[in-house]
Design goal:
Layout (H helix, E strand, L loop, with lengths): L6 H9 L14 E6 L2 E6 L4 E4 H10 L6 E5 L13 H4 L3 E4 L5 H6 L4 E6 L2 E2 L7 H6 L3 E4 L16 H16 L2 H21 L6 E6 L6 E4 L4 H9 L1 E3 L8 E4 L1 H7 L3 E6 L5 H10 L7 H4 L3 E5 H4 L4 H16 L2
């Protein structure tokens, strides 16, 4: 991928879109779009590789299946056959069930890669946007994951990150009208949930991802934080300025959560986590555990993607019934 360009240069490039090159052929259309906090010049990708369902779902929701070559889906993800986009997954190639890596991307002859920072892209594993830039491969990162991206960080609330991604991808692929329509629909659905949310003191909610010695949970930089607060609850770790994070069980006990949201994924089934919380002396007497108040959130409703809206609507319905 070509590297970031200054704003002035970007403006000149944009003014040249549609110009003709030697021989009468139209020049490739280019546009400058944010990748986290960085201005990057893109041409329309034709052979995209997407990592995890959040990336794939964003492409499919925008009607861009024809621009997807294939997907990489680690075991944590539920089967794509269970996805609302199952028909779209069937039209593209399954490229692997391991972590994203440079060899796979190069072997697939990708011209565009979509993933998150430290969720796909990784300095340690040697696959970053900067490295792909040097290989002439374009890339895009989920805005929600830009919180701790080196050099070009960007911080948005998680649902705003979803809307931002759809709008930016719409620019990259020339489907901005489609993106705006989708974002308007999602915002409207969120507004309806907020309007119907229980009034009064928010229910205290603990999201349990995994862990026994410590709890892996959601800080305020990932979609479950917005799912909980829009539904009328309060994430007991909403003051933690982080994405997915680990906390001591003492902090969970001190917060006395009334509801536990269980993040359900392939290699760590929800029922196993519920059994642990019921059997562990540290958590067995929590109000949520004593009263059997567990809500199972699908993995792909909890990572950045269109299914965040479904996750919100499902949890909001549960919370309304809880309050009765």
């Amino acid at each position: 991928m070509k590297k970031a360009v200054p704003i002035l240069a970007a403006a000149l490039l944009l003014s040249a879109c549609g110009a003709e090159v030697e021989g009468g052929a139209p020049a490739a259309q280019e546009k400058v779009v944010k990748r986290c906090g960085e201005d990057v010049r893109y041409t329309t990708p034709q052979r995209s590789v997407v990592y995890e369902a959040g990336s794939a779902d964003k492409m499919f929701a925008l009607g861009l299946t024809d621009h997807v070559h294939g997907y990489v889906m680690p075991p944590a993800n539920p089967p794509v056959q269970e996805s609302p986009y199952a028909a779209e997954y069937a039209k593209v190639q399954f490229l692997g069930d391991d972590l994203l890596n440079r060899e796979l991307v190069v072997g697939a002859k990708a011209d565009f890669v979509v993933a998150g920072w430290n969720s796909g892209f990784s300095d340690q594993r040697g696959i970053t946007p900067a490295i792909l830039d040097g290989l002439g491969i374009q890339s895009f990162m989920h805005s929600e994951s830009c919180f701790n991206y080196p050099k070009f960080p960007e911080q948005v609330t998680p649902f705003e990150g979803l809307y931002t991604d759809l709008e930016r991808m719409g620019q990259i692929f020339g489907v901005s009208d489609r993106a705006q329509k989708l974002v308007s629909e999602y915002r409207s659905r969120v507004d309806q949930v907020v309007a119907a949310a229980p009034k009064g003191e928010p229910v205290k909610v603990f999201l349990y991802d995994s862990g026994t010695d410590q709890a892996s949970t959601a800080g305020n930089q990932v979609p479950p934080n917005d799912i909980i607060r829009f539904a009328g609850g309060r994430n007991i770790f909403d003051g933690v300025d982080a994405r997915w994070t680990k906390v001591g069980w003492e902090a969970v006990v001190d917060a006395q959560p009334e509801v536990v949201v269980i993040l359900d994924y392939g290699d760590k089934p929800a029922q196993e986590k519920i059994n642990f919380l019921k059997s562990s002396p540290a958590t067995a007497q929590l109000p949520a555990v004593v009263n059997d108040k567990f809500y199972v959130l699908d993995y792909n409703e909890g990572i950045s993607g269109p299914r965040n809206i479904n996750g919100l609507e499902g949890f909001a319905k549960y919370l309304r019934e809880f309050q009765r």
